[in-house]
Amino acid sequence: MGRKMKVCMIVPDPAVRGGIASVVNGYRGSSLERDYEISYVESYRDGSKWQKLGKALAGYCAFIGKLFRDRPDLVHVHSSFGPSFYRKIPFIYLSRMMGVPVLNHVHGAEFDVFYENASAAKKRRVARVYNRCTRLIVLSEEWKQRIARIVPAERIDVLENYCVIPEEPYDSGRKQDQVLFLGELGTRKGCYDIPFIWEQVLKAVPGAKLIMAGDGEMDQVRDAFRAKGLLSGVVFPGWVRGEDKARLMRESGIFLFPTYHEGMPMAVLEAMSYGMGIVTTAVGGIPTLIIHGENGYIREPGDREAMAQDVVNLLTDRERCSVYGRRARADAGRRYGREQHLERLGRIYGTIGTCS
Question: Which helix (H) or strand (E) holds 209?
């Protein structure tokens, strides 16, 4: 039997908030580590700009040492757009200089801001970096079509994110009148549409409760609710993870996610796994997850009136909410389980090279 392929994965610190860390944290201790010799180089952390810079520099040093002392067979880079893209350039170029293949796993959500609306010089720079990679992973067919403007489509693989399906009872303590938002509080996730949506919901269901879980522009979003006189009925618990997040998803009947830009959001996958009634938008990979009127509701970004009515429909028709939730949970388990994801990732590794 040949030796295991050595894979060096460029990742954020496990405590980082956000989707990339959620995906990578699920790799640790998984069957991926059984089948491949996985090492992790951390290149990002939350904190001040100096703390972030220190983490990046430490990551570069650790990576250079690994290239010379324990050369990997493959470097698997997890990247996004914006600063994340630029932080990963040294890893990509150093790997290629040393003749090591690079798999760039692109998690970004705002390609139009980052590339399509950029200057010609920036577009050339982005194209050069992506074309230095051996292969790219994107999160949906939509994103493959976009990135294929830069990189030949045959070098791009689609690998959706995954969710870990909670065991029964997955909905203990469920409150059918509790609506949950989970994510970064800000414009991109549609948080400034939620006060309007919630105002309409309360006209039909005055006793409904809203949880706005996440960090970011918390004060500004809170002020938007305050301006409509809605603040007293909305809870802002901050960023939640672990058991606190699991409790909110078990308890809440409806997941509201009016986002404007996404790749393949972990939050929607997790809401599906908990059997919640889902109201979201048709961006990124979400249309592959949610089928309107079958396992949730999906609207165009900014269609606040329709989303408000969808939330009301789920609040007032508990049987419909339950049916959609059960279908979403079944879909998540059948199509987006972690082991299926890891098997597909292994096949992608195999297209790049195997060890004898």
Answer: strand 209-213
Distance CA 133, CA 103 (A): 6
The DSSP result for 268-334, as a single string, is HHHHHHTT-EEEEES-TTHHHH--BTTTBEEE-TT-HHHHHHHHHHHHH-HHHHHHHHHHHHHHHHH
Q: What is the pLDDT along the chain (356 residues), one digit of tens a residue?
A: 568 899 999 999 998 888 888 899 999 999 999 999 999 999 999 999 999 999 999 999 999 999 999 999 999 999 998 889 999 999 999 999 999 999 999 997 777 678 878 888 988 999 999 999 999 999 988 889 989 999 999 999 999 999 989 988 888 889 989 999 999 999 999 999 999 999 999 999 999 999 999 999 999 999 999 999 998 889 999 999 889 999 999 999 999 999 998 888 999 999 999 999 999 999 988 999 999 999 999 999 999 999 999 999 999 999 999 999 999 999 999 999 999 999 999 999 999 964 33
Quick check: 170 and 273 in contact, CB under 8 A? yes
Residue position matching structure tokens 């995954």: 162
Instruction: Provide the 3-class DSSP secondary structure of residue 5.
Output: coil
Backbone phi and psi for residue 54, each to the nearest 5 degrees, phi listed first = -60, -40
| Measured torsion, CA atoms of residues 32, 33, 35, 37, in degrees rounded to the nearest 10 | 130
Q: Where are the alpha helices (DSSP H) in the chain?
A: 19-25, 31-35, 49-69, 83-97, 111, 120-132, 141-147, 194-204, 218-227, 242-251, 266-273, 286-289, 304-316, 318-335, 338-352
Give how far Cα 322 sits from Cα of 254, 296, 299, 316, 345, Å. 10, 10, 20, 11, 33
Q: Is 235 left (phi over 0), alpha (psi -120 to 50) or beta?
A: beta
Q: How far is CA 199 from the centre of its chain?
A: 28
Q: Extract the tokens encoding 221.
A: 């979003």
